[in-house]
Amino acid sequence: MPEAPADGGEQGLREAAPQGGEDAVSERERKPASDTQGGPVSQLEKKPVPPVSKTLSEKGEKKRTEKGKKASSPKKTQKSTGGRPKVNIHDIARLAGVSEAAVSRYFNKGYVSKEKREAIAKAVEDTNYSPSIHASSLRSNKSRLIGVILPKIDSSAMGKMVGGILEVLEGAGYQILLATSENKKDKEPGYLRLFSHKNVEGILLIGSIMTAAHQEAFEQLEVPLVLLGLRWEGPCVYHDDYHALYSLTSRILEKGRTRLGFIGVTMEDESAGRQRFYGFRDAMADAGLDKDLAVGLADFSIESGYEEASRMLRSRQDLDALVCATDTIAIGALRYLRDGGIDSPGQIMVAGVGDSQLARVVTPTLTSIRIPFDQGGRLAAQMLLDLLEGRELEEEQVMMGYEVVERASTLPKPSILHLGHGHR
């Protein structure tokens, strides 16, 4: 099986693979699938005990002299072991070449880039620095709240992920604050900033699109962050979308279908958009069928799947299968075929991604990719708990597997055997 390709740009599917032409598919790119310091305070000189024979006037004079000395003595400063000044967060930031905010995030388990994290760790090791107990205690008033941000609510996959998250967090005594961006990427950085001021102890972002605004918001967080459904350089749980679509497409090709169309989603979406399209494209290319690819673009709804299937099949009447980026798009395509009197799977096979409940009850039942969304939610939540409790992560980036579930929409119909009446 091939390696997953690297980032291929931000253009939409129609731009990445325009309808009907050799320029429909860009050059294939591949990427691996599987990635208390401080010395003792010096003591003040011990006050000498006067001999019993001293007169009262001598005692009074000595007391006045000592009082004057005490007033004029400079204030003692705390020294670290070896006579060096005590190291503080400002010194660590200066030695590491980062901001004090970055050092604060580092000690509070917030997001810090790998490069900065390594620089801070070295400065800490070189100076034998540890944060003061007083500073650490400022965050000891735990809220037991976790912020969860997701792109939409009306999705089978999102429901399964949130269910897995709740199972782990509620079991550990946490509650969640839920926010939905309604598939508007500009809302997510705002929610990240909002949660950071709402005394949440950590944040789980179910992501699909990564922008510079997201990165900026990540760097300002002082609480742990885990991403679910999207790969990045920090802690994350993501899905093998590339190989899932490669396998699904290959399975249909093995059935003798050679003129496959693909209905995807925006290429801004790294997982459902870009990686799933690349998996389809590369499977077709490896079969020598990547010329004149039929590629369409929909959103995540049944209605858009219906409309895009209608548009594609009017312009490409030679197609014998449709591979769709989601189950909802595929169900919309099946509805169009039924309304148009086009037999499925006889004339056109259809497959999707998600293994939703609808995939099991639609007619014909839908072949789909089963992705363990609930397990991904549990893993991401446990990863966040480990960060909150100061445990070392065994893996910072975990990739989930998948399974191709075949149903009637890609299976040949059984032949009907007509039995005649026997003769006596």
Summarize the structure in short.
The protein has 424 residues and is of the alpha/beta class. 40% of the residues lie in helices and 13% in strands.
Protein model, in words:
There is one protein chain. The radius of gyration is 32 Å and the shape is elongated. It is 40% helix and 13% strand. The longest helix has 17 residues, at 56-72. The protein starts with 12 loop residues before the first helix and ends in a 19-residue tail after the last strand. The model is unreliable at 8-12, 14-83, 133-139 and 417-424 (pLDDT under 50). Helix 3 crosses helix 4, helix 3 crosses helix 5 (114-127) and helix 7 (156-171) runs parallel beside helix 15. The strands form two sheets. Strands 2-1-3-4-5-11 form a six-stranded parallel β-sheet, sandwiched between helices. A six-stranded mixed β-sheet has the order 7-6-8-9-10-12, with helices on both faces. By secondary structure, the protein is an alpha/beta fold. Helix 13 links the parallel strand 8 and strand 9.
